[in-house]
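Q: What would this chain look like folded?
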Amino acid sequence: MFGRAPKKSNNTRYYEILGVSKNASQDDLKKAYKKAAIKNHPDKGGDPEKFKELAQAYEVLSDPEKREVYDQYGEDALKEGMGGGAGAHDPFDIFSSFFGGSPFGGGSSRGRRQRRGEDVVHPLKVSLEDLYLGTSKKLSLSRNVICSKCNGKGSKSGASMQCSGCQGSGMKVSIRHLGPSMIQQMQHPCNECKGTGETISDKDRCPQCKGEKVVPEKKVLEVVVEKGMQNGQKITFPGEADEAPDTVTGDIVFVLQQKDHPKFKRKGEDLFVEHTLSLTEALCGFQFVITHLDGRQLLIKSNPGEVVKPDSFKAVNDEGMPLYQKPFMKGKMYIHFTVEFPDSLSPDQVKALEAVLPPKPTSQLSDMELDECEETTMYDVNIEEELRRKQQAAQEAYEEDDDMPGGAQRVQCAQQ
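A: My prediction, written as C-alpha coordinates:
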Protein backbone atom coordinates (compact mmCIF):
# COMPACT_ATOMS: atom_id res chain seq x y z
CA MET A 1 0.00 0.00 0.00
CA PHE A 2 1.48 3.34 -1.04
CA GLY A 3 1.04 6.56 0.92
CA ARG A 4 -0.13 9.68 -0.78
CA ALA A 5 2.42 12.18 -2.10
CA PRO A 6 3.28 14.97 0.35
CA LYS A 7 1.86 18.41 -0.19
CA LYS A 8 4.30 20.75 -1.94
CA SER A 9 5.82 23.58 0.13
CA ASN A 10 8.58 26.20 -0.18
CA ASN A 11 11.53 24.78 -2.14
CA THR A 12 13.59 27.92 -2.77
CA ARG A 13 14.30 29.33 0.71
CA TYR A 14 17.46 27.27 1.30
CA TYR A 15 18.93 28.46 -2.01
CA GLU A 16 18.09 32.06 -1.06
CA ILE A 17 19.74 31.66 2.35
CA LEU A 18 23.00 30.54 0.70
CA GLY A 19 22.63 33.06 -2.12
CA VAL A 20 22.93 30.52 -4.95
CA SER A 21 20.76 29.45 -7.89
CA LYS A 22 18.77 26.21 -7.97
CA ASN A 23 21.26 24.64 -10.40
CA ALA A 24 24.29 25.44 -8.19
CA SER A 25 27.01 22.77 -8.11
CA GLN A 26 28.46 21.23 -4.93
CA ASP A 27 31.51 23.51 -5.24
CA ASP A 28 29.21 26.52 -5.53
CA LEU A 29 27.37 25.43 -2.37
CA LYS A 30 30.62 24.97 -0.43
CA LYS A 31 31.99 28.37 -1.44
CA ALA A 32 28.72 30.11 -0.64
CA TYR A 33 28.39 28.40 2.74
CA LYS A 34 32.00 29.10 3.81
CA LYS A 35 31.75 32.78 2.90
CA ALA A 36 28.39 33.33 4.60
CA ALA A 37 29.24 31.20 7.66
CA ILE A 38 32.43 33.15 8.40
CA LYS A 39 30.53 36.42 8.05
CA ASN A 40 27.70 35.32 10.35
CA HIS A 41 29.67 33.24 12.90
CA PRO A 42 28.69 34.17 16.51
CA ASP A 43 32.37 34.37 17.50
CA LYS A 44 32.66 37.27 15.04
CA GLY A 45 29.52 38.98 16.29
CA GLY A 46 27.21 37.39 13.75
CA ASP A 47 23.57 36.46 14.20
CA PRO A 48 23.30 32.96 15.80
CA GLU A 49 19.94 32.31 14.10
CA LYS A 50 21.31 33.23 10.66
CA PHE A 51 24.33 31.00 11.33
CA LYS A 52 21.99 28.12 12.21
CA GLU A 53 19.91 28.65 9.04
CA LEU A 54 23.04 28.58 6.87
CA ALA A 55 24.10 25.25 8.38
CA GLN A 56 20.65 23.73 7.90
CA ALA A 57 20.44 24.92 4.29
CA TYR A 58 23.90 23.57 3.44
CA GLU A 59 23.26 20.23 5.16
CA VAL A 60 20.13 19.64 3.05
CA LEU A 61 21.43 20.90 -0.31
CA SER A 62 24.82 19.15 -0.01
CA ASP A 63 23.04 15.78 0.37
CA PRO A 64 21.85 14.61 -3.10
CA GLU A 65 18.91 12.60 -1.72
CA LYS A 66 17.69 15.41 0.56
CA ARG A 67 18.20 17.98 -2.19
CA GLU A 68 16.07 15.95 -4.62
CA VAL A 69 13.23 15.71 -2.08
CA TYR A 70 13.56 19.42 -1.28
CA ASP A 71 13.50 20.45 -4.95
CA GLN A 72 10.43 18.34 -5.64
CA TYR A 73 8.33 18.78 -2.47
CA GLY A 74 9.95 21.49 -0.31
CA GLU A 75 10.76 21.86 3.41
CA ASP A 76 7.64 20.22 4.81
CA ALA A 77 8.45 16.91 3.13
CA LEU A 78 11.83 16.82 4.85
CA LYS A 79 10.21 17.63 8.18
CA GLU A 80 7.88 14.67 7.64
CA GLY A 81 10.92 12.39 7.30
CA MET A 82 11.37 12.03 3.54
CA GLY A 83 14.96 11.81 2.39
CA GLY A 84 16.15 11.10 5.91
CA GLY A 85 14.58 14.20 7.40
CA ALA A 86 15.57 17.86 7.61
CA GLY A 87 19.03 18.89 8.73
CA ALA A 88 19.40 18.61 12.49
CA HIS A 89 23.14 18.58 13.14
CA ASP A 90 24.86 21.12 15.36
CA PRO A 91 25.74 24.15 13.18
CA PHE A 92 29.12 24.45 14.90
CA ASP A 93 29.97 20.85 14.01
CA ILE A 94 29.23 21.55 10.34
CA PHE A 95 31.38 24.69 10.50
CA SER A 96 34.21 22.70 12.14
CA SER A 97 34.14 20.16 9.31
CA PHE A 98 35.36 22.98 7.04
CA PHE A 99 37.82 24.77 9.32
CA GLY A 100 38.64 22.32 12.12
CA GLY A 101 37.93 25.01 14.70
CA SER A 102 37.67 28.80 14.60
CA PRO A 103 39.29 30.69 11.70
CA PHE A 104 39.34 33.86 13.79
CA GLY A 105 42.23 32.95 16.11
CA GLY A 106 42.13 32.34 19.84
CA GLY A 107 39.90 29.27 19.52
CA SER A 108 36.19 29.03 19.19
CA SER A 109 33.72 28.78 22.00
CA ARG A 110 31.91 26.03 20.08
CA GLY A 111 34.12 25.15 17.13
CA ARG A 112 36.10 22.56 19.08
CA ARG A 113 34.21 20.41 21.52
CA GLN A 114 36.04 19.51 24.72
CA ARG A 115 34.86 17.05 27.28
CA ARG A 116 34.59 18.26 30.86
CA GLY A 117 36.76 16.74 33.54
CA GLU A 118 35.22 15.27 36.66
CA ASP A 119 34.65 17.36 39.76
CA VAL A 120 36.58 16.37 42.88
CA VAL A 121 34.39 16.36 45.98
CA HIS A 122 35.81 16.55 49.52
CA PRO A 123 33.80 16.41 52.77
CA LEU A 124 34.71 19.21 55.19
CA LYS A 125 33.84 18.67 58.85
CA VAL A 126 32.82 21.83 60.71
CA SER A 127 31.48 22.53 64.18
CA LEU A 128 28.24 24.35 64.93
CA GLU A 129 30.43 27.15 66.30
CA ASP A 130 32.12 27.40 62.86
CA LEU A 131 28.75 27.80 61.17
CA TYR A 132 27.62 30.38 63.75
CA LEU A 133 30.77 32.52 63.80
CA GLY A 134 32.17 31.81 60.33
CA THR A 135 35.70 30.54 59.81
CA SER A 136 38.34 29.82 57.17
CA LYS A 137 40.44 26.70 56.74
CA LYS A 138 43.58 26.28 54.63
CA LEU A 139 43.75 22.86 53.01
CA SER A 140 46.66 21.38 51.06
CA LEU A 141 45.59 19.25 48.10
CA SER A 142 47.41 17.34 45.38
CA ARG A 143 46.20 17.52 41.77
CA ASN A 144 47.45 16.89 38.24
CA VAL A 145 48.37 19.83 35.99
CA ILE A 146 49.35 19.98 32.31
CA CYS A 147 53.09 19.38 31.89
CA SER A 148 54.70 22.74 31.12
CA LYS A 149 57.66 21.22 29.28
CA CYS A 150 55.65 19.40 26.58
CA ASN A 151 52.39 21.40 26.89
CA GLY A 152 50.46 18.22 27.56
CA LYS A 153 51.69 16.37 24.45
CA GLY A 154 53.66 13.78 26.42
CA SER A 155 56.47 13.76 23.85
CA LYS A 156 59.50 15.87 22.96
CA SER A 157 58.42 16.19 19.33
CA GLY A 158 54.75 16.74 20.11
CA ALA A 159 53.85 13.69 18.01
CA SER A 160 52.13 10.47 18.99
CA MET A 161 51.25 7.16 17.33
CA GLN A 162 47.97 5.32 17.13
CA CYS A 163 47.84 2.58 19.74
CA SER A 164 48.19 -0.81 18.04
CA GLY A 165 46.52 -2.58 20.94
CA CYS A 166 43.14 -0.88 20.44
CA GLN A 167 43.59 0.64 16.95
CA GLY A 168 43.16 4.10 18.41
CA SER A 169 39.76 3.51 19.99
CA GLY A 170 41.05 3.56 23.56
CA MET A 171 38.90 0.52 24.41
CA LYS A 172 39.40 -3.24 24.26
CA VAL A 173 36.89 -6.06 24.20
CA SER A 174 37.50 -9.23 26.17
CA ILE A 175 35.48 -12.44 25.99
CA ARG A 176 34.85 -14.59 29.03
CA HIS A 177 33.54 -18.15 28.76
CA LEU A 178 30.82 -18.75 31.33
CA GLY A 179 29.99 -22.31 30.32
CA PRO A 180 29.03 -24.48 27.35
CA SER A 181 27.81 -22.20 24.54
CA MET A 182 27.81 -19.22 26.92
CA ILE A 183 30.17 -16.27 26.68
CA GLN A 184 30.29 -12.79 28.19
CA GLN A 185 31.67 -9.86 26.22
CA MET A 186 33.13 -6.98 28.24
CA GLN A 187 34.55 -3.62 27.17
CA HIS A 188 37.29 -1.92 29.17
CA PRO A 189 39.94 0.81 28.68
CA CYS A 190 43.02 -0.31 26.78
CA ASN A 191 45.84 -1.03 29.23
CA GLU A 192 48.54 -0.20 26.67
CA CYS A 193 47.47 3.42 26.11
CA LYS A 194 45.35 3.85 29.29
CA GLY A 195 42.30 4.62 27.19
CA THR A 196 43.85 7.50 25.22
CA GLY A 197 44.05 5.66 21.89
CA GLU A 198 47.64 6.78 21.28
CA THR A 199 51.14 5.80 22.36
CA ILE A 200 54.49 7.56 22.56
CA SER A 201 57.82 5.91 21.79
CA ASP A 202 60.23 5.55 24.72
CA LYS A 203 62.87 7.72 23.03
CA ASP A 204 60.39 10.53 22.41
CA ARG A 205 58.85 10.63 25.90
CA CYS A 206 58.91 13.98 27.68
CA PRO A 207 61.60 13.83 30.39
CA GLN A 208 59.46 15.82 32.83
CA CYS A 209 56.13 13.95 32.72
CA LYS A 210 57.50 10.64 31.33
CA GLY A 211 54.80 10.68 28.65
CA GLU A 212 51.93 11.07 31.13
CA LYS A 213 51.13 14.60 29.82
CA VAL A 214 50.44 15.79 33.37
CA VAL A 215 52.53 16.22 36.51
CA PRO A 216 51.45 16.30 40.18
CA GLU A 217 51.19 19.65 41.95
CA LYS A 218 50.53 20.65 45.55
CA LYS A 219 48.08 23.49 46.04
CA VAL A 220 46.76 25.22 49.15
CA LEU A 221 43.14 26.37 49.03
CA GLU A 222 41.58 28.66 51.61
CA VAL A 223 38.02 27.54 52.25
CA VAL A 224 35.87 30.35 53.67
CA VAL A 225 32.91 29.10 55.71
CA GLU A 226 30.46 32.00 55.97
CA LYS A 227 28.16 32.64 58.90
CA GLY A 228 24.87 30.79 58.63
CA MET A 229 25.99 28.16 56.14
CA GLN A 230 24.15 24.84 56.38
CA ASN A 231 25.10 21.22 56.78
CA GLY A 232 25.49 19.79 53.26
CA GLN A 233 26.12 23.18 51.63
CA LYS A 234 28.76 23.20 48.88
CA ILE A 235 31.74 25.53 48.49
CA THR A 236 33.08 25.37 44.93
CA PHE A 237 36.49 26.26 43.49
CA PRO A 238 35.91 26.38 39.70
CA GLY A 239 38.58 24.83 37.49
CA GLU A 240 40.78 23.60 40.35
CA ALA A 241 40.39 19.83 39.83
CA ASP A 242 42.79 17.63 37.84
CA GLU A 243 43.89 19.03 34.48
CA ALA A 244 44.07 16.87 31.34
CA PRO A 245 44.79 17.62 27.66
CA ASP A 246 41.78 18.69 25.56
CA THR A 247 39.62 18.72 28.67
CA VAL A 248 37.79 21.50 30.47
CA THR A 249 39.06 21.26 34.03
CA GLY A 250 36.45 20.28 36.61
CA ASP A 251 35.83 21.92 39.97
CA ILE A 252 36.93 21.14 43.49
CA VAL A 253 33.85 21.01 45.71
CA PHE A 254 33.85 21.00 49.51
CA VAL A 255 30.66 19.68 51.14
CA LEU A 256 30.12 20.91 54.71
CA GLN A 257 29.47 18.19 57.27
CA GLN A 258 28.35 19.57 60.63
CA LYS A 259 29.53 17.67 63.70
CA ASP A 260 27.01 16.95 66.44
CA HIS A 261 26.94 19.51 69.25
CA PRO A 262 26.62 18.37 72.87
CA LYS A 263 24.12 21.10 73.77
CA PHE A 264 22.45 22.65 70.72
CA LYS A 265 20.48 21.14 67.85
CA ARG A 266 20.04 23.17 64.68
CA LYS A 267 16.92 23.24 62.51
CA GLY A 268 17.34 25.74 59.69
CA GLU A 269 17.87 29.16 61.23
CA ASP A 270 16.76 28.09 64.73
CA LEU A 271 18.58 26.51 67.66
CA PHE A 272 17.04 24.03 70.10
CA VAL A 273 18.34 23.33 73.60
CA GLU A 274 17.09 20.92 76.28
CA HIS A 275 16.79 21.97 79.93
CA THR A 276 15.52 20.04 82.94
CA LEU A 277 13.75 21.83 85.81
CA SER A 278 13.06 20.51 89.26
CA LEU A 279 9.42 20.46 90.34
CA THR A 280 10.16 23.36 92.68
CA GLU A 281 11.61 25.42 89.80
CA ALA A 282 8.69 24.59 87.54
CA LEU A 283 6.18 25.75 90.17
CA CYS A 284 8.03 28.51 91.99
CA GLY A 285 10.29 30.05 89.34
CA PHE A 286 13.80 29.54 88.02
CA GLN A 287 16.82 31.18 86.50
CA PHE A 288 19.83 29.65 84.81
CA VAL A 289 22.60 30.57 82.35
CA ILE A 290 23.14 29.24 78.81
CA THR A 291 26.58 29.65 77.27
CA HIS A 292 25.98 30.55 73.62
CA LEU A 293 28.06 29.40 70.62
CA ASP A 294 30.02 32.67 70.65
CA GLY A 295 30.78 32.42 74.40
CA ARG A 296 28.16 34.92 75.58
CA GLN A 297 26.30 34.11 78.81
CA LEU A 298 22.52 34.29 78.41
CA LEU A 299 20.45 34.64 81.59
CA ILE A 300 17.21 32.68 81.27
CA LYS A 301 14.59 33.28 83.97
CA SER A 302 10.86 32.81 84.45
CA ASN A 303 8.31 35.53 84.99
CA PRO A 304 6.89 36.03 88.52
CA GLY A 305 4.14 33.51 89.23
CA GLU A 306 4.78 31.61 85.98
CA VAL A 307 4.36 27.82 86.05
CA VAL A 308 6.25 25.76 83.48
CA LYS A 309 4.52 22.58 82.37
CA PRO A 310 6.40 19.41 81.38
CA ASP A 311 7.32 19.13 77.67
CA SER A 312 6.71 22.85 77.04
CA PHE A 313 8.76 25.21 74.87
CA LYS A 314 9.90 28.80 75.35
CA ALA A 315 11.47 30.97 72.63
CA VAL A 316 14.17 33.65 72.77
CA ASN A 317 14.16 35.95 69.73
CA ASP A 318 17.34 36.70 67.75
CA GLU A 319 19.45 34.09 69.53
CA GLY A 320 19.28 31.42 66.83
CA MET A 321 21.63 30.98 63.86
CA PRO A 322 22.63 33.92 61.66
CA LEU A 323 21.04 33.86 58.22
CA TYR A 324 23.38 32.98 55.35
CA GLN A 325 24.61 36.18 53.66
CA LYS A 326 22.41 38.15 56.11
CA PRO A 327 24.50 37.66 59.27
CA PHE A 328 22.84 40.49 61.23
CA MET A 329 19.51 38.66 61.05
CA LYS A 330 19.10 35.63 63.29
CA GLY A 331 16.56 32.94 64.03
CA LYS A 332 15.17 31.94 67.40
CA MET A 333 16.45 29.85 70.27
CA TYR A 334 13.87 27.35 71.52
CA ILE A 335 14.22 25.90 75.01
CA HIS A 336 12.50 22.56 75.60
CA PHE A 337 11.67 22.07 79.28
CA THR A 338 11.51 18.74 81.05
CA VAL A 339 10.21 18.73 84.63
CA GLU A 340 11.81 16.29 87.04
CA PHE A 341 9.39 14.96 89.65
CA PRO A 342 10.49 13.49 93.01
CA ASP A 343 10.31 9.71 93.34
CA SER A 344 8.26 9.94 96.55
CA LEU A 345 7.00 12.37 99.23
CA SER A 346 6.83 12.10 103.00
CA PRO A 347 3.43 12.52 104.74
CA ASP A 348 4.50 15.94 106.01
CA GLN A 349 5.44 17.04 102.47
CA VAL A 350 2.09 15.84 101.15
CA LYS A 351 0.24 17.84 103.82
CA ALA A 352 2.32 20.93 103.07
CA LEU A 353 1.59 20.67 99.35
CA GLU A 354 -2.11 20.08 99.92
CA ALA A 355 -2.18 23.24 101.99
CA VAL A 356 -0.88 25.45 99.16
CA LEU A 357 -2.04 23.67 96.00
CA PRO A 358 -5.59 23.70 94.62
CA PRO A 359 -7.75 21.02 96.27
CA LYS A 360 -7.95 17.57 94.75
CA PRO A 361 -11.17 16.82 92.82
CA THR A 362 -13.66 14.96 94.98
CA SER A 363 -14.90 11.52 93.96
CA GLN A 364 -18.37 11.39 92.44
CA LEU A 365 -18.94 7.93 93.94
CA SER A 366 -20.42 7.36 97.40
CA ASP A 367 -18.52 5.48 100.09
CA MET A 368 -20.79 2.46 99.57
CA GLU A 369 -20.11 2.48 95.82
CA LEU A 370 -16.38 2.76 96.44
CA ASP A 371 -16.51 -0.23 98.81
CA GLU A 372 -17.97 -2.33 95.99
CA CYS A 373 -15.07 -1.47 93.61
CA GLU A 374 -12.18 -3.90 93.21
CA GLU A 375 -8.82 -2.48 94.25
CA THR A 376 -5.90 -2.72 91.84
CA THR A 377 -2.15 -2.42 92.25
CA MET A 378 -0.03 -0.34 89.88
CA TYR A 379 3.68 -0.78 89.26
CA ASP A 380 6.33 1.02 87.22
CA VAL A 381 6.89 -0.27 83.71
CA ASN A 382 9.14 0.51 80.74
CA ILE A 383 6.45 0.54 78.05
CA GLU A 384 8.88 0.18 75.13
CA GLU A 385 10.54 -2.84 76.71
CA GLU A 386 7.14 -4.31 77.61
CA LEU A 387 5.84 -4.03 74.03
CA ARG A 388 9.07 -5.44 72.59
CA ARG A 389 8.85 -8.46 74.91
CA LYS A 390 5.23 -9.13 73.91
CA GLN A 391 6.06 -8.88 70.20
CA GLN A 392 8.95 -11.31 70.60
CA ALA A 393 6.75 -13.81 72.49
CA ALA A 394 4.08 -13.62 69.77
CA GLN A 395 6.68 -14.24 67.05
CA GLU A 396 8.07 -17.28 68.87
CA ALA A 397 4.56 -18.71 69.30
CA TYR A 398 3.85 -18.24 65.57
CA GLU A 399 7.08 -19.98 64.56
CA GLU A 400 6.37 -22.85 66.98
CA ASP A 401 2.88 -23.29 65.46
CA ASP A 402 4.38 -23.49 61.94
CA ASP A 403 6.72 -26.28 63.05
CA MET A 404 3.86 -28.48 64.36
CA PRO A 405 2.79 -31.43 62.12
CA GLY A 406 -0.50 -30.74 60.39
CA GLY A 407 -0.30 -27.05 61.10
CA ALA A 408 -0.94 -26.18 57.45
CA GLN A 409 -4.05 -28.37 57.29
CA ARG A 410 -5.53 -26.70 60.36
CA VAL A 411 -5.16 -23.28 58.80
CA GLN A 412 -6.75 -24.49 55.56
CA CYS A 413 -9.74 -25.99 57.38
CA ALA A 414 -10.29 -22.78 59.29
CA GLN A 415 -10.63 -20.89 56.00
CA GLN A 416 -13.31 -23.18 54.49
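The chain has three domains: 13-99, 116-150+214-259, 261-395.
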